[in-house]
Amino acid sequence: AQKVTQAQTEISVVEKEDVTLDCVYETRDTTYYLFWYKQPPSGELVFLIRRNSFDEQNEISGRYSWNFQKSTSSFNFTITASQVVDSAVYFCALSAPGAGNKLTFGGGTRVLVKP
Amino acid sequence: AAGVIQSPRHLIKEKRETATLKCYPIPRHDTVYWYQQGPGQDPQFLISFYEKMQSDKGSIPDRFSAQQFSDYHSELNMSSLELGDSALYFCASSVTSVGEQYFGPGTRLTVT
User: Fold this and answer.
1) Which of B55, B90, B106 shows the shortest C-beta gap to A100?
2) I want to staple A10 with a disulfide (CB 3.0 to 4.6 A). Which of A110, B38, B84, B111 is the partner?
3) Does the distance separating the beta carbons of B45 and A102 come in below 8 Å?
4) Under DSSP, is residue B80 helix (H, G, I), strand (E, B) or coil?
């Protein structure tokens, strides 16, 4: 069975602060994919990033960066210099070809960026 | 770029009525997924189709059924609606069954 845990339910920051979202996952599959999605107040789910289980290289894309560590089953996500438009619920998700490729989501972390 | 299209965007039904939600995947995407997101909850997988065949099934009630048609669009049929079916229903599509899933805007179903 797959499981994704986002321990932080809500984070509130002031604009320009950095925000790090924690994600811990469980899976028995050796090949799997990890995702971050953003859900703004309008409700749509926006794909942000995907990493596969064989690529632990951490990258930066604009103001987004992520830290994937298989040893601790963690896939943390950081927004640098947050902006009000970053206010949303962020979901970490896991899929595995061996499990039908369906997405298993964490409970989400609500990020509130205040001006 | 073309995105996943869902219709209708909003739907209000009464208890025991039926509802049909439609999903049009991104062109050349052959896999469609349906998810249900209750208020304040994370999306939950319902069912998926690959090349018009059901590929996986999650916690989908027996009152719900779905199919994927020859043009790859998919429909989710919901009967005997209950108050607890009120949710945001997302459709997602991907290229092959292992590609990243791109979500439609969702259909907000309200059952009164």
Assistant:
1) B55
2) A110
3) yes
4) coil
